[in-house]
Each structure stands twice: as C-alpha cells, then as structure tokens.
Design brief:
The structure is a single chain. With 112 residues, the chain is α+β, with helices and mostly antiparallel strands. It has one domain: Alpha-Beta Plaits. Helices cover 29% and strands 31% of the residues. The strands form two sheets. Strands 2-5-1-6 form a four-stranded antiparallel beta sheet, with helices on one face. A two-stranded antiparallel sheet has the order 3-4. A hairpin with a 5-residue loop joins β3 and β4. The longest helix is centred in the N-terminal third of the chain and has 20 residues.
C-alpha cells in the first residue's frame, strides 16, 4: 500500500536557523531517504520551494499568489512510501528528521 508523508513546518523559524543547522536538517533527510531506499519502501520524495512561490488556482479560474490557506505551518516536502499498512507508515513518519515546527501527516494513496 502506498502512503504520502506530508511534512509541515515553520518556514520562518527554519530560515532563522544558522546555515550549519539547516545543512544538518538537509543531511538528515538525505540519510532518511537512503534508509527508505535500503528498506525497499521509498518510492519518491522532494523538498518544496518556499510557500510564497506557490500559486493557487480556484474553481472559477482565479489565480492567487501563495498557498491555498495562510497558516503558521507550511508544507515543506513529502515522501511517497510503499509498505504493508498504516502502522508501518506511521513508524517511518516518526523517523523523519526534526526541523522547526515539524509535523508529519500520513495519508493512504488511492489506487485508481
């Protein structure tokens, strides 16, 4: 079964970190990606650009700058993993490298 791990965090707090600390977070994600690959569950993952670079297209075709909703936490990246069940996906979510304000939403992907 495939699962989406959506990584939310505090962009401003992360930007305020010293460069060395931000680099440590990136290296942590590189190591985590390697672990997912070694475990045979990694499908895909990426970091996202700042939320200010987002554009939202509304149902009426109106395009607005920024994310869908203003929030203290922003989506900063994601992983798609494939494992037996949601309990195993949650175990991987608990291992995502820490960053300011991190929370990880785990959602099953539908097979269409």
């Amino acid at each position: 079964m495939k699962f989406l791990l959506l990584l939310y965090g505090d962009e401003a707090a992360e930007e305020a970190l010293p460069v060395v600390e931000r680099r440590r977070i990136i290296e942590g994600h590189e190591e985590f990606s390697d672990k997912l690959s070694d475990d045979g569950v990694h499908t895909y993952g990426e970091a996202l650009d700042q939320s200010a670079s987002a554009r939202t297209v509304r149902e009426d075709g109106l395009v607005t700058e920024g994310p869908f909703a203003e929030a203290r936490e922003q989506i900063g990246g994601f992983y798609v993993i494939e494992c037996a069940d949601i309990e195993r996906a949650l175990e991987y979510a608990e291992q995502v490298p820490q960053s300011p304000g991190l929370s990880v939403e785990v959602r099953p992907l539908l097979s269409i």
